[in-house]
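Task 17 of the worksheet. Students: predict the tertiary structure of the chain below and write it out as structure tokens. Keep your answer in the requested format; marks are given for formatting as well as content.
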Amino acid sequence: MLALSHSCRYFLYRSPTDMRFGIYSLAGLVRNELGFDPSSGDVFVFLGKRLNQIRLLQWDRDGFAMYVKKLEQGTFEWPKSEDIAITSHQLTLLLQGVMLDSVRLRKRYQHPNQVTKQEGEFAKKVPYWLV
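Model answer:
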């Protein structure tokens, strides 16, 4: 079972990926193309050329973990923005097949000490009880 957490950061690899790539090839893309450390604990999301297969790569304390989902019918949709950082909520919607452009979120309270992702910056959301 895959559990997506608000405490992790999620990054999209924007180019179509060869779905034959394994853990170490995807980790190489993270390091060489995105410029991130693949063993940081962040989750990196890769989408195949046909848009019917997605892979998530994460370092899990003692080794890499990879989640693969291949659709029997239909395709995944990338978010339209050029930003590579997404939230766990956006990733959940993406995996469920929801078109992200059609989603409108209602305004909710946000604790003043909570750090959020600003335009062009990548920041980790920190729960207020950890601040």
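Marker's comment: The longest helix spans residues 23-34. The chain has a mean pLDDT of 82.
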